Amino acid sequence: MRRRLYYLADNIEMVDRVANLLHRQGIEGWNFHVLSKDDVGLYKHHLHSATPLHSQDILRAGERGALIGLLAGLVISLIVIGVFGFFQNQFIIAALVITLLVTMHGAWAGGMAGLMNENYKIKRFHGDIEAGRFLLMIDVTNNSREKVKRALDSLPIVPQGDDSIVVLPFGFGRG
User: Fold this and answer.
1) Nearest to residue 157, comparing CAs of 124, 133, 140, 174?
2) What secondary structure letter does DSSP report for 55?
3) Rounded to the nearest 10 degrees, what angle do helices 12-24 and 142-152 cross at?
């Protein structure tokens, strides 16, 4: 199981030091992302900035949309086939196609709605990021978690806990 460690740093030089330490610990660059208002600084320092999947609620809203779409698709197929009598010769195929189409539409609509919302797992850091601090998100395995935490204890960054990297459709996050 993978976990995501959260740390706050005050300046980009400290983020650079953390990145160098993590590379020495065997943490690859794609397992370390930084969320900041200073995207240009992250680019100049060759740091991986957070992706929209990290910063927006795309996955959770998409999962919610898919679940709602699945339920709506089942209801719509029952109405179209059962009440109106369409496709009664191909009941199973028609029900699957209708349900699949409505589910996919729900996932797409949910994902689009998620683009407008901050990720529920990082919402608690909004004020810090707006104040110019850097949120470090480090994905580690359970085996390397304590080793990485001990290594980072030597740096003046503020630990903010850890969380699962799994996104839950109806999860509420922390904070």
Assistant:
1) 133
2) H
3) 130
